[in-house]
Amino acid sequence: MFPSRLGAWTVLLAAFLLAGCQSAPTKNANGSTPQPSAPVHLDPKADAVEATKQLTKAGFGPKKPAGIAFYLYFKDKSKAENAAKDMKADGYRTDVHQVDPTGEWTCTASRQLAPGTPEFTAAFVHAAEVAIRNGGEYDGWEAALD
Questions:
Q1: Rounded alpha-carbon distances, angstroms, from residue 87 to 10, 38, 107, 118
Q2: pLDDT tens digits, residue range 27-66?
Q3: Which CATH number does 41-144 carry?
């Protein structure tokens, strides 16, 4: 079952992300649990390429847009709300809510985008830039297939 924040969105990226992940040891040599030294940052251009491939296979393209949602995460509500304001100004529907149990805030920004167009790739880069500019992280995308 998908977390509630995913709603009716269909996850297309999960296999791609999992395929690129490397397993970390479950314990360090001293017996402690390993901690990441830096946050993992997704590559929005690579995401756009993968999204184009997957959505093209699903029948979407330059003349048939798909509903795309971007996920941006923040430590506090005001930063998430600022990102939502930026994305809304660019024509996105946005939603800001707190993520349980982490307490982080997510800004979900969605709109119709046509795979295989320059605007499609630019939208992925723009979402990441908005997240960074507002002190957050870009955490990927999803597409609605209906």
A1: 21, 26, 9, 18
A2: 444 454 443 333 445 789 999 999 999 999 999 999 999 9
A3: 3.30.70.970
